[in-house]
């Protein structure tokens, strides 16, 4: 048992986060995402919602500061659809963790699948929000 590490972060997920390098991407996949068929490395986080898991991850994981947006979501197929409510949760969590405003880039559905296939890992969650998938690009930890 370790102190100050969220119980939402399994040993497998902690190992993946630690092994990732600057610019590597990780996908937090909702429960509808075909994670097993797209993952080079698959981590199961069944039963966990993405906002809570995201907050736990961002205690340890820096977002990239060298790109316009270190976070991406799947663009809804219906262009007239309103923005999924969960996206504002993601922004709130990321902004608080990073102490800066984090924008979400929109990625077309099949381009999102292609990008997920090249990600370092995919975390299959229990998130039920439609279009709840999120890609994060890892940054660096600089000397303080």
Tell me what the structure shows.
This protein is an alpha/beta fold. It has a domain at 40-137: RbsD-like domain (RbsD-like fold). Helices cover 31% and strands 18% of the residues. It contains five helices and six strands; from the N terminus they run αβαβαβαβαββ. The protein has helices spanning 11-19, 35-38, 50-57, 85-98, 109-117; strands spanning 25-29, 42-45, 71-74, 104-107, 121-125, 134-137. The protein has a six-stranded mixed β-sheet. Strand 3 (71-74), helix 4 (85-98) and strand 4 (104-107) form a beta-alpha-beta unit. Helix 3 runs parallel beside helix 4. The longest helix is centred in the middle third of the chain and has 14 residues, at 85-98.
SSE inventory with pairings:
Elements: H1 11-19, E1 25-29, H2 35-38, E2 42-45, H3 50-57, E3 71-74, H4 85-98, E4 104-107, H5 109-117, E5 121-125, E6 134-137
Parallel strand pairs: 1-5, 2-5, 3-4
Antiparallel strand pairs: 1-6, 3-6
Helix pairs in contact: 3-4
What sequence of helices (H) and strands (E) makes up the elements? HEHEHEHEHEE
Q: Helical region count?
A: 5
User: Major sheet: size, sense and barrel closure?
Assistant: 6 strands, mixed
Q: Give the strand tally.
A: 6
Radius of gyration: 14 Å
Helix content bin: 25-40%
For the biggest β-sheet, the strand order reads 2-5-1-6-3-4
Strand content: 15-25%
Rounded mean pLDDT score:
96
How far apart the termini lie comes to 28 Å
Shape: globular
Structural class, please?
Answer: alpha/beta
What is the CATH topology descriptor of the domain at 40-137? Answer: RbsD-like fold
Specify the CATH class of the domain at 40-137: Alpha Beta
Enumerate the spans where pLDDT stays under 50 for 5 or more consecutive residues. none
């Amino acid at each position: 048992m370790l102190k100050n590490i969220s119980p939402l972060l399994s040993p497998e997920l902690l190992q993946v986060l630690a092994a990732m390098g600057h610019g590597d991407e990780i996908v937090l996949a909702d429960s509808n995402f075909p994670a097993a068929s797209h993952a080079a490395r698959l981590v199961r986080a069944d039963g966990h919602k993405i906002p809570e898991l995201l907050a736990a991850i961002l205690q340890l994981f820096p977002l990239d500061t060298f790109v316009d947006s270190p976070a991406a979501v799947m663009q809804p197929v219906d262009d007239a659809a309103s923005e999924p409510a969960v996206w504002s949760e993601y922004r709130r969590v990321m902004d608080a963790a990073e102490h800066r405003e984090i924008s979400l880039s929109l990625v077309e559905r099949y381009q999102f699948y292609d990008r997920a296939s090249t990600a370092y890992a995919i975390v299959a969650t229990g998130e039920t929000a439609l279009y709840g998938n999120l890609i994060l690009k890892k940054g660096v930890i600089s000397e303080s």
